[in-house]
Amino acid sequence: MARVSDFLEYENSKECCPLISEYIKRIWEKIPSKREMMDSACGYFNKIYPGSGDLYVASLNMMNKFDPEVLFRGQSNAEYEIIPRLGRNSNFIHEKEFIEIPQTEKPDFFKPGYRPLEKLALLQHYGIPTRLLDVTSNLLVALFFACQSDNGKNNDGEIIMFLDMHSYSSIYPLMEAHADSYSLTEGRCLSLDAFYERAFRKSYFGDEQYKSLYSNRENQIRGFLHPVVVNPPRRALRHQAQQGKFLLFPNEIKQNPDSPYIEASIAKIEKDSPFCRCLKICSEHKKELLSELSILGVDKVHLFPDNVDVFSSEIVRNLTNRQTCMRGY
Fold first, then answer.
1. 45: which of 38, 50, 52, 226 fits an S-S bond (Cβ 3.0–4.6 Å)?
2. Are 60 and 53 in contact (CB under 8 A)?
3. Are the CB atoms for 192 and 253 separated by under 8 Å?
4. What is the pLDDT of residues 235-251, one digit of tens each?
């Protein structure tokens, strides 16, 4: 299955897949420079929590960490918000049940050593609403999903580009705490101090170095300002095939006169956020784009290798299409 780099190196790419080539060009034009991102991020964070933007950018400079990886998500309807299923409708109030019932009913699926983040990734794979949002490092995979029909309707799709600026090692235990939020907050509003006090008792916060890092108020606040990219073990074949990662959404943080506190909710990513860019995929282009993607091996068979139903239906569809073409001669 092709990656964008493979596609761009292919001499006849524009001739065999002209529409894909045009969309790739439009997408790269949307990605900002590092300086534009840094200035935008500073203003964005200062609006969410006064003073946090300057601290955030300063910490990135100290770590020499502002070389963002671009990740992608394809949505079949450009009107969809950027939020995981747990944040839609009234799903959030059922987070405890979504996590605990499958572990009780299907204990063989969950190994004793699985940490909170691994559990969420497995639940996400089986269709349970979680605070994870699927993204991919392969633009062509995202384009495939953006070109799908929207519940039978041919609406405009959308490619969303996420700009990842995070140091995985420094926020590792906080990722586990976010994944474990339902047990730490018990589904209620909680002071920031109480959240970290409870998290520090967990095994994933066992290293004193991490406890020291997150004893600092600025670091505590920064850890809740927006989603982070996580990459738990790829246990599902489709996750490997799709070069998938996840965005992990923390609970919202609010400020009051005494101290910050954690809300019993998660917030969507606004489409004008400095950490994402969006490009609409015209509905009339979807069919042609899917045909071009199929030439590159980006199709259901390759993206869902563990789904026998998909494999079988694609065989039938391809043979039927071939027979129809032969009748035309």
1. 52
2. no
3. yes
4. 778 888 888 999 999 99
